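Researcher: Quick test of sequence recovery. Tokens follow.
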């Protein structure tokens, strides 16, 4: 009895699958009924694209390529489907289609457009449905897509500097570079809030060294100044502060008299704040003031000194020890 039920269930599943496949083929045949030539398929796809029916255009371009893989419109369909995917809010498919076109047609006159669309697909990639309705700061998001887009545009400019898309790609690269620099500053401030001063210092230095010309450089110097103060490296802090005063005298971290404004609070969420997702409790606590003097020497030197004193202690006589060195 049990075997009969299993056999019947399998039979129903197979029947439904075959029926679905048959319906799909029928719908596909109905969709392209009356289209016999390659030119007719292409004209249908262009009409769908112009009427903003991007899903229909994608399906028609795919049908054109499958039926006429070596036809006159095959390569054109492959490049235009990139735009259809892009406008259809499918950036991953757009990038994949652009990569495919570049691989299959490296000498095509439109290959520069494929490189441009690769960068553009990552440039406008809005991950998550909330990004459509809420104003999300792009500099606080994962910089992976921005870096990817920047590299794609850079490749376009390197290979086709005279491309019609070069000017727009260059402008977008400036925007992306500014955002990437601002992201590093957000990370640096995060480290400062959590007393990870070495990590903050490294981020500030990275911005100053690699993002010259961006607005975030001033913030990078300010981060370096505060990190040096927190670490007690006053000489380096003075050098960074002098650089900040000289080049960015109106920066928010400099007071009217030229003194550096060091933050007096850090992120330290209480248990109540964490448990209520920020509704109750506090997310701030006082932090100790910055060290006022530089350490005399490093920790390793202190260890060496302690070891030397221990060895001297072992070599002293019992009489010297009990008389505190007065008698040997």
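Model:
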């Amino acid at each position: 009895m049990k075997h009969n039920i299993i056999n019947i269930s399998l039979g129903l599943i197979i029947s439904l699958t075959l029926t679905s496949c048959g319906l799909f083929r029928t719908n596909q045949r109905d969709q392209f009924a009356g289209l016999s030539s390659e030119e007719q398929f292409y004209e249908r796809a262009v009409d769908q694209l112009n009427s903003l029916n991007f899903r229909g255009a994608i399906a028609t371009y795919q049908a054109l390529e499958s039926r006429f893989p070596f036809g006159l419109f095959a390569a054109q369909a492959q490049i235009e489907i990139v735009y259809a995917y892009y406008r259809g809010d499918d950036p991953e498919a757009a990038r994949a289609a652009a990569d495919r076109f570049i691989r299959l047609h490296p000498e095509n006159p439109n290959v520069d457009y494929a490189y441009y669309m690769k960068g553009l697909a990552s440039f406008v990639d809005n991950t998550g449905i909330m990004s459509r309705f809420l104003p999300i700061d792009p500099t606080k998001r994962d910089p992976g897509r921005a870096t990817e887009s920047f590299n794609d545009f850079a490749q376009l400019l390197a290979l086709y500097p005279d491309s019609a898309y070069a000017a727009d790609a260059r402008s977008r690269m400036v925007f992306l570079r500014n955002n990437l620099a601002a992201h590093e500053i957000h990370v640096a401030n995060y480290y400062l809030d959590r007393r990870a001063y070495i990590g903050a210092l490294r981020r500030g230095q990275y911005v100053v060294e690699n993002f010259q010309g961006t607005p975030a450089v001033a913030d990078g110097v300010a981060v370096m100044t505060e990190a040096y103060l927190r670490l007690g490296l006053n000489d380096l802090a003075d050098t960074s502060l002098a650089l900040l005063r000289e080049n960015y005298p109106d920066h928010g971290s400099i007071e009217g008299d030229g003194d550096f404004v060091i933050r007096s609070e850090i992120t330290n969420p209480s248990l109540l704040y964490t448990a209520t997702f920020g509704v109750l409790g506090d997310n701030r606590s006082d932090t100790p003031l910055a060290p006022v003097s530089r350490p005399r020497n490093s920790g390793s030197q202190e260890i060496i000194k302690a070891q030397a004193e221990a060895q001297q202690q072992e070599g002293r006589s019992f009489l010297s020890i009990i008389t505190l060195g007065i008698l040997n």
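The domain at 182-295 is CATH 1.25.40 (Serine Threonine Protein Phosphatase 5, Tetratricopeptide repeat).
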